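Whether sequence alone determines local backbone shape is best considered at the level of individual chains. The sequence in question and its structure tokens are set out directly beneath this paragraph.

***
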Amino acid sequence: MKKTVIASSAAACLLLAAVAYAVSTSTFEVSAADAIRKGRLEGVALKEPASVELAREKKEVLKAEGEVVWSLALDAAGSVYAGTSPRGKVYVVRDGKSSVAFDTDESAIFATAVGPDGKLYYAGGPSGNVFRDGKRFVKLGASYVWALMFDAGGGLYAATGPDGKVFRIDAAGTAVEVLDSPDPHILCLARDSKGNIYAGSSKSGLVYLIPPVVAQASAAKPRIVYDAAESEIRAIAVDEKDNVYFGTSDVAPGRPSRTSLGMRGPVMAPPAEAGPSAAGPGASAASPMPAAAIRDEVSATNAIYRLAPDGSVVQIFAVRGKMILSLAWANGALYAGTGNRGDLLRIDPETGEVTTIEPDLEKQIVSLVPGRAGELYMGTGDQGRVWRYAREFAKEGQYTSDVFDAKFPARFGVLTWTGVIPPGTTVEAQTQSGNVADPDASWSEWSAPAAVSGLPVASPTARYIRYRLKLKTAVPAASPVVDDVRIAFLPSNQPPKVKAVKVTLPQDKLKDRVPGQVDVAWQAEDPNGDRMQYTLEFRLRGDTAWRTLVEKADKTSYTWKTDAVPDGSYELRVTASDSPDNPKESALANSRVSEAFVVDNTRPIAAVTVRPGDAKSGKASVDVVMTDVGGTIKCAEYSLDSGDWQPFLPDDRVYDSPKETATIPLEGLKDGEHTVTIRVTDSGENVGAGSRTFAVK
């Protein structure tokens, strides 16, 4: 954003010292989230509406190249389990080291959960098997298991597809159907403090409430608590007050995703031969099993909603062009992972404040799970990574702005910013300038760090500039926050440009023709946006001296009354000056000369002679010689004895010369005197006349 501001007095005096520079100081200002996103965030987070702070301490704990981390689960010892595709592996991160915990014949492990017994339960597709610590625990009557969750009584809930069922499985491995949805897939599960299970569906975008089990292997009737405008509920989380958050993942507006999870259905690996962990006979390699995240561009607007315990629902966040793929409640805030541009977001539901912790990390952030000590684990697509985000801020990070273009070489004033800098934290600002759009070796070195706002920019005069902020903290729980960064600059003054001068003569108009009146209009622009004044001059073609018609005009048109100048060929010159916005010594001007045009204010002359016939014939011939000094004959008419005007043509049949001759035959004349009058109009719309009285005897 560029806006005109008043720089500090010292900076203004410094900038005005150079006569080649303009007067009005402008600023490059970064005070909007979109402007910040154009820069590079390294170890810093974007906090809406438009500030940066240190990001949380981040560490990669797992990298499984070419895989997608669909689900994460933590055990009591703090070990992290990751279910992946397309090879159906479960990884474990324990004591900072990662390894394969379990290998299956599934194409994907979409769901993981640690049970009250400390064992890991996991499932995916296409077999419909649920595994427990490497062995098949139960086979469900479904091809895919999208989510697993334990209730307070140790029952394991499994959300499945393609028949849209939820099962509750007891410790003995007996599965009971507790929800049968008309939608094909139930994608996510969450539990509140009262034991209610919430489930989200794909196709109709339904959120179900499944009451807690009231008797062995039985449950009260589930009910729909929300029907979203979007077609797919992909993620659910619950806070400590039993507010339920759910996010949508439509790909395009007005239509559901092509398959569950908003993913394409690639060819899956065929099931292995029969065995404890092999796909059962109900599985099929032709099933639409999504084994990799979608590569489509997302055009839909997706949202996160909050369902309160009283049943009211409000939208707390919306984003266009991204899907909400994962949610987690941790440390008093809601965390959301998106795709197909993987942002990690922190959302305060009460204030609506959104912090982009990690922008465009990978294609998708598919899974999130809070840790035991306030940390957050995040699983991604494409690169198959698991990241650990600590509760504490990183010790340092930096933000490098986008390149700002002054359009012309500019002197730079002061760099200012606002924000909050708690004790134990610091902010340093640097600038770098150059004369090519993309920073390269020709750019200046980064300036020395400035630890306070309002110091003069040390980078040399140039067309382009950018800044860099270095944020640091010695207090893990505190971070500096910087917003509204501005750089004052004064571009070199550029001359205005007169782009066109148009002259309109009387004969060029279709109506309102006024002889002797020339209308002139011009177009001009100033590259600096300065106000302009105009001088209009004329000269007879061939003369060297220009004569002024008007000066210091602010309008871009003028009407010239030419009756005080002799006929001839003339030129007009328009000069535009930026003097209204610049001191006399630095004001610049530009001129443009019009095409030559003819001023013709002299009436044409019509010399008339008549050769009368006798009374018997009733005929006569009128000879007309028409001449014009300043232009050409345009048209002529005659009137006999004050009758109607009749046009006539010259002898050569075309009016195109300063001198024309014509013969007009008259017939049906009666005996006696007659008067013929000739009216001639020239190219300057001047009218001349001549007449002759003659007798027919």
